[in-house]
Every structure is written in structure tokens, then in C-alpha cells.
Amino acid sequence: MKIQKIMKAIIFALFIMSGSFFTLTLFPNGSSGENESETGIITGTVKVSRARHSGDVVAYLEREGLKKEYPPLEKHSTLDQKNLVFIPRVLPILKGTTVDFRNSDDVQHNIFAPGKVEKFNLGTWGLGGIKEYTFSKPGEVVILCNVHSEMVAYIIILESPYFAKTAKDGNFRMENIPPGTYTLKTWHEKMKSAPQQVTIAKGEIKEIHLELKKRK
To answer: Where do the Rhamnogalacturonan lyase domain residues begin and end (predicted)?
Structure first.
């Protein structure tokens, strides 16, 4: 009986010790194992003076030393043609992104870009057709249709993934921003940019409010 009691005591002690070791291995600092956020968030509004709405403003971050090459998403972005309008009118993308140009109208459409950043003509095609193009240079690319001269869209190619486009009420939100000091810039087809220095700390949610005025 004594031997059995001693053996039970030894087994129990080993169980407790092994359990403690396992716990210490999982949580060496006594934490729950959840990683704290290493990045920050910028949220805010952009007001476009004397405009019907404050949408289609691209807000983006620049910083010296920020790496120049970010892998683009494998998923393509899309620019559609529907009811003789480009949807969306403004499309911000990361450099290296491929855009699918769709035709959702029961008429012939064309896609061409006459600018300096990217210059191409994808031709003309009908309902349901899709053609693609990969944008490898940063800047503004104006997209036109030579069948319908009133149609226009803007593709804004950016060098970092820290950007957002405003909704019609001017609201925007950028997430997963590494801590540091940046220059917040804006793009609008008619308005002047309003650069602003922004410092983001780990786990911080920074609120920014901007007002854009017409280019002179």
C-alpha cells in the first residue's frame, strides 16, 4: 500500500511539473499569446470645396526610406464600362497591379490611354469582353474610349499600399500603417493637393481632416 501511495505521489508530481513546463513554453512572458498590433490607422475626412460631393479623392502616404517595391495583389482590379460610364471613375492601385477592363454595355467600347505615364490602346470590343493591362509606372493615367468621347476615368498608380479613396461624404480609412512620420498627400482630378505631415505610433488611430481647393 505504501509503495502504491508513493508511486501515485510521484506520478502526480510529474504531471504537475510537466503541465507547468508546457504552460511556460507556450507563454514564456505570462501573456495570453495574442500579438499586440504593430501598426496604426489613419481615419478622417476630406472636404472638396465647391463640389457636389467629396468622393473620388485619393489619399496616400509617402516617406523617405519607405521601400519602393511592394508585391501587388494577385487579384486583378476592375474598371467596367456600363451605361456609357466608367465604373469606378477613379481607381487607385499599387504599382504592378493588373486591371481588367470590362464591357458591360450592349455596344462597342474602346480603351486607350494617351498620357506619358502609360500610353496604350487595347482596341474595341463588345458586351461581355474583358481585356487586361498591367501598370508598371507610378502616376496618373487618363483612360478614354474613342467610341464615346464623353467617357473618362483616372487610374492612380501608387508606389506603396498605404492609400485610400474617399466616399462621397469625404470619409476615408487607411489601416496597417507601420509606425513613423509620413507626408499625407491627396489626388483629385480638379483640386490641388494639400500635403500634411503625419506621425503614426504603434496601435494609434489618428484622425485627419483636410480641405481641398481648386488648382490655379
So the answer is: 162-204
**Mean pLDDT over residues 114-125, rounded?**
95
Give pLDDT tens digits for 9-29.
Answer: 444 343 333 333 332 222 222
The CATH number assigned to the domain with range 68-159 reads: 2.60.40.420
| pLDDT (0 to 100) of residue 103 | 98
CATH of 37-66+165-216, one of 1.10.760.10, 3.40.50.720, 2.60.40.1120, 3.90.1150.10: 2.60.40.1120
Its pTM stands at 0.80
